[in-house]
Amino acid sequence: MTFNAADHDPLPELLLNLNGGPTPKFIRDKHSDAHHVRMIRADAGGALRTFNGGLAHENGWFTSRKARRVLHWQGAAQYDFLTRAEVEFAVVRVASESVRFEFTRRGKKQVYTIDVELVASDGTVTLIEIKRDERDLADAEYRAKLTAVHEICDEHGIRFKIVFRHQIWDSLIHRRNVTLFCSRRFVTILPEHLERLYAHERQVGRDATFGSAVSAIAPDCPRTGEAVLQAMTVARRVEMDLTRLLLDTTPVTIH
């Protein structure tokens, strides 16, 4: 199907809070005809390109609660990014290999498929290209293709961002917390769990702690309470700063 930016709500800022590092600068590419471009979207949030082995780098499938489907990934950096996006509160929906650009540059057809698409609750669409490091951008023709894609996105009110692997994790603590919470994404959240959480909110307000929320959710079984709360983070019922050590006193915001 052909992608139409008008199908989306207004697109304000998406907060993914990736840490520092040089940000590639995009300059208008006068050799690209960005006015004659096709943006093709896979049906039902699927992938336009998939591989089952046979590649020089790692590849596979990631089962996503947010996407409500399996997502294809290529390379460890893309897998890491999908893992973080699954837990990131700002991300409502995620897809991989889901949008393709077809346009003309210097009289030749150019084809480019994005790595990851993020959608926020306010309708923000951000397309992500994931690279291991700056050396992956050494080829001038490839940089020119990305410049043209960035220009196309700007004209359609869509954000385009390059993320290097070292930007995905703030620290080892961050990576361990996200990996743990993501592993609990399919833990069953029962109606009584939500009732107890929101009863706790009425008592203490939206700002609680990890320990108090766990006790409220499952008073008789802390392990169950932890697992359910971690699943609630993926389900966007609660929000936590996973760059910090996970303690009973760690702040939790109830949504």
Compact description:
The protein is an alpha+beta fold. The chain is built from 6 helices and 12 strands.
List keywords for this structure.
255 residues; alpha+beta; 6 helices
Radius of gyration: 20 Å
Tell me the major beta sheet. Answer: 4 strands, mixed
| Contiguous runs where pLDDT drops below 50 for at least 5 residues | 1-30
Give the H and E element order: EEEHEEEEEHEHHEHHEE
Count of DSSP helices? 6
Q: Tell me, briefly, the overall form.
A: elongated
Percent of sequence in beta strands: 25-35%
Structural class of the secondary structure composition? alpha+beta
Strand order of the largest sheet: 4-7-8-9
Determine the N-to-C terminus distance. Answer: 35 Å
Overall average residue pLDDT: 85
Percent range for helical residues?
Answer: 25-40%
What is the count of β-strands?
A: 12
Plain-language structure description:
With about 260 residues, the chain is of the alpha+beta class. It is about 30% helix and about 25% strand. The protein is built from six helices and twelve strands. The protein has helices at about 75-85, 140-155, 170-185, 190-205, 210-215, 220-235, and strands at about 30-40, 60-65, 70-75, 95, 100-105, 110-115, 115-120, 125-130, 160-165, 205-210, 240, 250-255. The strands form four sheets. It has a four-stranded mixed beta sheet. Strands 1-5-6 form a three-stranded antiparallel beta sheet, covered by helices on one side. A three-stranded antiparallel beta sheet has the order 10-12-11. Helix 2 (about 140-155) links the parallel strand 8 (about 125-130) and strand 9. The chain is elongated and about 65 Å long. The model is unreliable at about 1-30 (pLDDT under 50).
